[in-house]
Fold these 4 entries.
Entry 1:
Amino acid sequence: MIAPLVATRARILAARDTAEGREKSVRRRLGAAWGLLLLNVIGYTGLIVHVPSIVGKAITQGSLPLALLLLLSVNRRVVVRPNVFLCLVTLLPLEAVMTALNPQFLGTVYRTVRLAEFVAALWLLSPWFGRRDLLLLRYHLTALGVVISSVILGLLVAPGTALGSGRLVGAIWGTPSTQIAHYCAIVIGIVVILWACGQMRGRLTVFTVVVASAVLVLTHTRTALTGLIAGIVVASLSLIDRYVRVRKMIATAIVVVSIAVVTASSFILSWLARGENSEGLRNLTGRTKVWGPLLALPRDRFQEIFGFGLSNSSFNGLPIDSNWLSSYLEQGLFGVTVCGLILLFLLVAAFFRPTGVQRALALFLVTYCLVASFTEDGFTDATPYMMDLAVAASLLLPPLMAYRPDP
C-alpha cells in the first residue's frame, strides 16, 4: 500500500517541478522578447565606442525578428486573444500596406513591413494580457530600468558627452533627452502607483523615484514632467475612495508643491524656460514652424484621407514632434481617427473596470500618452508610446483562467 502512494507522490512532485520549470522558461523568453521590442523602438543614434552606423542599425532592427522568433517559441500554436485594442492597432499596418502599394509611395514598404511585424508580436503576446501578476507591466518596468541605468552609467563614465548639450543624453547608447525623460516619467508613475496600492516596498520606491527624478530633471524635458503630473493626478483620483495611503499622498503633495512654489518659484521658472526667450516659448521650441507648412502642404483626396505612407516622422528634414500631425502626414485622416479611437477605447475600458491598481496604472499610462502626443511623436508607428498603450491594454482585460497557448 505504501509503495504505490510513494510512487504517485513522486509523479505528482515531478510533474509539478516540470510545470514550474516550463513556466520559468516561458517567463524568461517573454521578458527577453519584450526587451528586444523596446530595443527595436529605441533606435540607434550612436555609441560611446565608435561602431559603424550600419552595424548599430542592424542590432536594433534585427531585434524585432528575433523577438518574433522568441514569441513563436513560446506561443507555438499562434494562439491569440481577441481584443478591441489590438484590432484597432492592426488597422494602422493594414492602411500602410494599402498606401505602400501605390506606385508613388513604394519607399515606405520597408517601414510598413516592420510595423506589421511589431503588431504581430503584440498579437503573439495577447494570451498574457489580463494576468493578475501584472506580468507585462513588470517586464516593461524592468526594460525601462535597464535603459535608465545605461544612461546613468554613461553620465558617470563620460559626463562631458552626456551633458555636453546642456541636456542629459545617453552617452553609452545615443538616446535623446526626450526619450530618457519619457522612460523616467513612466517608471516614476508606475512605481508611485504600485506603492500607493501596497504592492511595492517604501525604501525601493523612494530610491527609484529619487534616481529617476534626478535623471528627469537633468533632461530638462517639460512634456514628460507635464504628462507625469497629469497621469499621477488622474490615477490617484481613481484610487482616492479606496486607499488611505493615496489620500495622504495627495495631501502631502499639495503641501510640498505649495512650499516649492513659494520658496523656489524662480528656480522652477528658470528650469521650465530652459534659457528660451518668449518667442521660443510661443512657438513651442520651433515646433509650430514645422506644423504650419505641414498643414499647408497640397494634397489630393487620397493623400488627405490615407496620407503619404510611413516615414521617419519628419517634414522637410525637421522633426514633426506631434503624434497627431505625424499621423496626418503619414496616414491621413484615417490614421488620426484610429489614434483617437485607441485612446478613447482605453479610457472607456478603464471606466468600466473596478477600482484597483490595474485600472489606476492603465489610466496613468493612457493619460501620459495623451498629454505627450501633442508635442512628441506617438503611436502611429512602432514606438515606446505604443508599448505603453499595449501595457495599458493588458491591464484592462479581465483575466482568463487556465489560458495556456502552449500545452
Entry 2:
Amino acid sequence: MTEKMKLKERLFYEVVVRDRHGKILERITTLSRSYVSAWNQCLYVLNRHTSCPIVDTGGVSRSVLYSSSVLRANAGVGEIDHGIRVGKGTTPITINDYALEAPCGEGMGIDQFLHQAMAASSPAVVAPDCSFWIRRVLVNNSGSTISGIREIGCYVMTKYSPRYCALGYRDVLPGSVSVPDGGSITVTYTLKVTA
C-alpha cells in the first residue's frame, strides 16, 4: 500500500500600517482563503495554451489567449490596473468576485494612495515547501487619515494590449484599518506549495 501525498497550495497575507516615521501601528498576518475563479482560469489558459472567457475588473467577459502577460502582477509606480490594491469594501468574498468592491484610487486626494512599485521574492525551496511573496507599499499623502480600509487583493493582467486585468484574489480584513497622513500600508501576499 502506498501512502498518498497531499499537495497543498496556500496563500497568506500580511498587512502592516506605519505612521510617517515608520513606526508600526498595526499588523495583521493570517491565512487567506480568497482565490477567485479568474485565478484558476488564468492557470488553465497557461497550462493548455488555449483561450478561456475571463471576467475582467470592469465586469466584462474577455476571451483570454495564452501569452506571457497572463497572471502578470508586477505593476510599476502609480499603476493600479494590476498589482496589489486596497479598498473599503466589506462584502464577503465569493468565487465570482471580479474586482475589489470599493478600491482606493491613485493620487493625493481623498481615499487615494501613492501606489509604489510591486516587489517580489524569488521562489525559495525549504522542504517540503516552495514559496515566494509579492508586496506593495501604498503611501498616504492625502492630507488626512484614510480610514475604513477593509479589503485587499491582487489584480493580474490577462492581456497586455489592449490592457485587460482580472482579480486573482481578494480578502476582507477582520476589522478596518486606518492609515495616517504621511503613513503607509504594506500588503504582502505569500504563495506557498507544500508537497
Entry 3:
Amino acid sequence: MPAYAVLGAQWGDEGKGKIVDVLARDMDIVARFSGGNNAGHTVVNDKGRFSVHLVPCGIFWPHTMNLIGNGVVVDPDVLLDEIDSLSGVGIDVAGRIIVSERAHLVMPYHVVLDDMAERARGDNPIGTTGKGIGPAYSDKAARTGVRAADLLDIEALLPRLDAILSHTNAIITKVYGGEAVSHEEIFEKCRDWSARLAQYIGPVEKIANQALAADQHVLLEGAQGVLLDLDHGTYPFVTSSNPTIGGASVGMGISPRHITQITGVFKAYSTRVGTGPMPTELEDETGETIRELAQEFGTTTGRPRRVGWFDSLAARYSTMINGYTSAVLTRLDVLDGFPSVQVCTGYIDEDGNEIQDFPGGVAALEKCRPVLEELPGWDTPTAGVRRLEDLPTNARAYVDRIQELIGCPIDVISTGPHRDETILVRPLIEA
C-alpha cells in the first residue's frame, strides 16, 4: 500500500488532529515526521477531549502502531507525561509507541536558550513557543545534538554531554548573562530517561519500510503548517523544521515514491500564532467574533490566534509546493450565521499593482493588501452536518469557490470537532 500524508496547508492549527484520528481507523501505522512539542493536536472522541503534542493521533485506535520519526525533536519529559496521561485514562500504549533511534532530544538547556534568545530579540520577537525546539534543531545541524539512541548507552553519552554542556554554559553565561545549568542535574535526567524510555526507542525507519513492503497502510502525520516551513514559509517567522511533503520523506526515512496521496488540511478561514505577515488579518469585531466562536487559542501555548479571511494566494502556493491530491476543509461551522463571508483572491502590492503570486520575501508580503471577494452567508447551521447535500446552498457555494481557487478537490468537510461530524465527499483512503 502507499503512504498517505496529511499536512497542515496554512499556518498550522487547521484541525489536522481530528482528520488524522478519523483516517487512523483504517491505518496500520500513524507516523509523526517533524516538529516537536511546539505543535499540539486536539482530538475529540468517545473517550473525551485530548491534546497531544508528540504522540501520534493514531494512539486512540487500539490496532494502530504509532511511530515518532527521526525528523521530530523529542522532549523526553513531555513524551513521558503524555504516555502516563494516556495510560491513566485506559488507553493501551504498551508496544504501540516507538521513537526513532535517530530522533534528537530537546534537552533542558534548549528551553533555557530558547527563552533567552527570544527575550534578547526585544521588540522584534520571532514568536516561538519557548519549548526549546529551535535550539534543539540548531544543535542537530551543529552536530552537537543528543539522539534517542544515545540514551541506550548512557556511559558513552555522558563524556560527550559534558563537553556539550561546557560549550552551552559558555553561551548562557557569557552571551546572555544567565546562570549555568548543572552538569550533574542533566546527567541525572539522562539516566532517568534511559531507564524509562529505552522500551520505546527503536528502528522506526525499518519498521515503516517493512510495513510499506508488506502492503500495510501508513499515515504520515504532519505538524504545524506549510507556511511555517523553514524553507518555504514566511521566513524568519517560521518553525525550525519542514512540515512540507519533502519533510515527510526525510523525517521518516522512507522513499518519496511510497507517498502517493497527499492531503492538505485548510481552515475555512485563516489563523496564525505569533508574529509575521498575514495579509487577510481581521483586527476588528469580526475577527474577534470568529476567535471567540472558534475558541482560537493555541493548543500548546494558549495564546490567542490571529484571525483572517481565507487566503487563496497562500493556499495555491501551499498546493503548488506539496502537490495535494485532495483537500480537507475544517471549521466551516464557525462561519454559520454571518451575513456574508469573504475570501482573498489577490494582493495589492506596494506599487498598487494586483498580484496573484504569494511573495517569497517577508518585506514584500508585509506590504501587501488583500483583494477580497464577498460571498453571501448562510443562516441554516452546518454544525454536525454529515452529508454534502444537506449543506445550506450558500455554504456549498463557499466551499465550491474555495475549491476552485486552490485548484484542488475538497474531499472532506469538517463540521464539528467530533469524529462523526464529518462530510466525506470522496474517500481519501484506497480500499
Entry 4:
Amino acid sequence: MQQHVLVIENSDSNLDVVSKLVRKAGLTPVGAHSLTEARARFSQMVPETFLCAIVAHQLPDAPCGEAIDFAIAAFIPTIVTTDNLEADTREKVLEKDIVDYIPKENSQYYDYLSRFLTRLEKNKSTGVIVVSTNRAVRKHMLSLLNRHNFEVYDCLTASDAMTTLAENSDIRLVITDDPLPDMSGTAFVSNLRKAFSKEQLAIIGIAGGRGMLMSAHFIKSGANDFLRLPFCHEEFLCRVMQNIEYIESVEAIRRAANTDYLTGLPNRRHFFYTVTVKHQTLSAHHALALIDLDFFKSVNDTHGHDAGDAVLKTVAALIEFYFSDEIIARFGGEEFCIYLPYTPLEEATTRLEAFRNILANEIIQLRSGNIHVTCSIGLCGMKTQNIDTLLSVADKQLYHAKRHGRNQVAYKADV
C-alpha cells in the first residue's frame, strides 16, 4: 500500500520543499495551502494510507492551530512546523497529541524532518521496552512512543522485561526506572549488559529525584544514556531517536563488513566467523561444497563485465533460495561456498546435483540476449572438525570436476 503524507503549508515555497523531502523518503505528498483545501483532499483519500501529516501552525483560514486539531481528529500522526519560536506557542502545541514540534529556525529543520519521515516508517518494526512502576511517567512515555509508531512493550518488573526481550527480536531500546520491584534499576542494567552489548541494545536510565548521582550510576552500570525527571517531550524523543539510530548504524556497518557488495550474500570473512563461532563443534554429519562457474571469463569477454555481474547475481539468488537454511557465502570471483551442517553426504550430493541441473537450465536475460551458464561443484563429506580441511578436500574435488568435463558434482567421503 502506497503511504501518503498530508502536507499543509501556507506558502508555495514551503509546500514545494517539504513535498520534495516526502518524496525523498519514498512517500507520496498530498499538498494543501489551507485547512479547507486539506479537508477536501483528505476526504478523497483512504485514511489508512496516511503515514502522517506535516501541518503549519498558522494558516490563512486556521490562524490558531485549527489544522492541527483536524489532523489529530482524523487519527493521523501529526508533525507541527512553525515560524513562531515563542515559548507560549510551543507549550500550547505540545499539549496536543502531536508526534513532534519543529521550529523553522535554520536549515537543519529540513534535515531533521527528512530523517523523521524515514523513522516513522522504520519505527513500525522497532521495539522499545519501558520498565517503570511510576504509572504516570510510564503511561506518558508509552503514549509518546506509540505516536511515533514504535512497537512498544509495557513492563513493570525487570523479570518481565527480560522475558519480553527473549521473546521479541525487534527490540532495540530499553528505558528503565529505579528502583524496580524485583531489583534496582542499575542491577537490571548490569544484567542486561551481560547478555547484550551497547551495540546490540540501547539502554536509557530514568534518573528521578536523585538527579545527577543516579544518572552517573546508570552510565557506570552500562546504560547508553539517561533521562532526568521531569523531561520535556522533545528531549525524550531526541534521546530515543539518537540511541536507536546508533544501534542501527552499527548494524549497517556490521552488515557492510560481512556482506559481498555485488551479490548481497555473506562474504568469506562472515562465513568463517559463522562456522567457527556459531558452530564451534561441527556436527557428526556435515558437508561442504565449493561451486565455481564454468567458462565465466568468456561471459565477461563476450558480453561485458555488466553481464558478468548479472550472472553472478542470478547464481547468488538461486543459491540463497535453494540453500536458505544453510551457511552460504561468495568466496570471491565466480566461486561460492555452502556449508551444510547435520547433512549426510548422500543427501548433500542429491541437493547439489539438483541445483547444478537447475542452474544449467536457468535462462539468464542480458541486454545482448539470453544465455545459460553451468557450474562445477566440489563436495566433501568428512567427519573432521577442521573447516580448513573440509575446504581443502572440497577444493581438490572441484579441480577434479573441472578436469573431467565441468558441469558436474565431484565428491569425497571419509574412507
